[in-house]
Every structure is written in structure tokens, then in C-alpha cells.
Amino acid sequence: MPDAAPDSTAIATPPWWREACAHLSKKDRVMRRLIPQYGDACLESRGNAFVTLARSIVGQQISVKAAQSVWDRFAALLAAFTPQGVLQLGAHEMRAAGLSARKVEYLRDLARHFDDGRIAPAQWRAMTDEAIISELVAIRGIGRWTAEMFLIFHMMRPDVLPLDDVGLIKGVSRNYFGGEPVSRLDIRELAQAWQPWRSAATWYIWRSLDPLPVVY
């Protein structure tokens, strides 16, 4: 379980990033253009499963900027961002930070799963992406999109393609289709060239829309 405030957790980066960039630059003309624009910046993880999932819930259906604002107010309520700390907060305090009633319920359910041991992060390293997704979506408020964000930002799994992500859809439309609407099939076919590094490609598509990297 996490035992420190989220911003004090050490930042980790994926060991496979350089290899992914080399592959993407070779296989995809848009990636060849995008990757040099962001220098040494890369995917980062705070290595804290509870914080990562909580941030993903907070960020659902709102902009990155709005999510960061709500998160800052929410995290400020706690000296240490732990499951126990969240469970001790009153719903009114959490709502005052900008969280919807439903997100309050989701965050409390997430905290209970960690607090009572129903979630066992130590087992995830040996599990496939789909097995982890199946386990996470059993928690209220965590759908496939949130589970995929977790795989990318916490587990740093290299080949995740979040087909329902609004940013990925918008970025692919802008960078590859001249702003025309794109389907999940369009993205899946395009992303064949990105394999086995679709997480990195997705990260660069996000950056093309917002140069400030997200860290969950």
C-alpha cells in the first residue's frame, strides 16, 4: 500500500523507450516527425498503484487541465495519499474539492479494495494485460479505459492501444486523416505498424495535442 503523498513518490521511466522510438521512427512517417519534437521527454510513472488508479478516476470525462485542478484540491486534503486516508474523508469534503458524487463513490470503493486486500498488486507483474484489465474492471468506476491508462502509466506496459481514448482518436484524426472522423478500425489498422510499442505511439499522439506530459 502507498505510504507517502503522491508527489513524493519516485518517478520511473520505461527501459524500453529508446527501442520503441527507434521502431516507430522507422515504421511511421508521422512518428518520425513527432518524436524529435519532444526531446528526451518520455512516459513517466509514479510507481504507486493506488494513486495511479485514483488519478484515472478523477480524470474521467473531464479535460487534463480540469482533472489536475480537482486532483490538486483533493490530494491537499490528505497528509499522505493512502486508502485509509481516503476512507477517513467525509463525502462533503471530497465533493468540495470538485469531485462528483459518483466519483466520490468510486474513489471510496477503490480505497476499500486496497484496504481489505482484494487488490494484490504484487501479482500483476506476472499477469497479461487482459488479465489485469479483467481484475480492475471489477472495481466500481473502473472501465476498460481506466484499466488501460493504468497499464500505460503504472505498469508501463509497452503495447497498449486505448481505442476509446478521446485524445488518441482526436490525435489520429488530426495527424493522419486531415481532421476527418476516424473509426476504431481505422486506428487499429494504423496501429499495426506501431506494434509492439503502441503505448509509446499513443503517448506521442497525446503530446501532439498537449505538449505537457501527463503523469499518473
Structure description:
The protein has 216 residues and is mostly helical. The chain is built from twelve helices and no strands. It has two domains: 17-42 and 160-209, Endonuclease Iii, domain 2 (Orthogonal Bundle); 49-153, Endonuclease III, domain 1 (Orthogonal Bundle). Residues 1-8 have low confidence and may be disordered. The chain has helices spanning 17-27, 29-34, 49-58, 64-75, 83-88, 91-96, 101-115, 129-136, 144-153, 166-176, 184-190, 198-209. 53% of the residues lie in helices and 0% in strands. This is DNA-3-methyladenine glycosylase II. InterPro entries: Alkylbase_DNA_Glycosylase/TA (IPR051912), DNA_glycosylase (IPR011257), HhH-GPD_domain (IPR003265). Belongs to the alkylbase DNA glycosidase AlkA family. Residues 58-210 form the HhH-GPD domain. It catalyses: Hydrolysis of alkylated DNA, releasing 3-methyladenine, 3-methylguanine, 7-methylguanine and 7-methyladenine.
Supply the helix-strand structural class.
mainly alpha
Report the strand count.
0
How do the helices and strands follow one another from N- to C-terminus?
HHHHHHHHHHHH
CATH fold description of the largest domain = Endonuclease III, domain 1
Taking the alpha carbons of the first and last residues, their distance comes to 16 Å
CATH class of the largest domain equals Mainly Alpha
Determine Rg (CA atoms, Å).
17 Å
| Number of discrete helical segments | 12
Q: What is the helical fraction, as a range of percent?
A: 40-55%
Any guess at the CATH architecture of the largest domain?
Answer: Orthogonal Bundle
Q: How much of the sequence is in beta strands?
A: under 5%
CATH level-4 homologous superfamily of the largest domain: Hypothetical protein, domain 2
Mean pLDDT: 90
